[in-house]
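Hey L., structure's done. Input below.
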Amino acid sequence: MTTDESAEVVVAGYYEDFSLKKIDKSPHQNRIFADDWKEKAAEFIANIRALGVLEPILARPHPERPGYLLLVAGERRVRAAIEVGLDAIPVRVQEMDE
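Output:
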């Protein structure tokens, strides 16, 4: 399944290529990354560059922005994907409470 850019609602399921521009960090999960996270994650970033994102991130539909998602798990994968210039990644979307 791929995303439909004109879609107003993202439903639960698996999306092979979901736009990174439509994934927001959850305000309830305040992850802190040190300035040197890229150096510490160099091997991880290299793997994403070589193989892409193999394990989908977990997200839920954004309650305030139709067509967007809130990240639940996988922020390192999102950051690494952005770092290597990917536009989209695999996402498993589940309905869940905060």
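The chain has three helices and five strands. The longest strand covers residues 13-19.

-- N.
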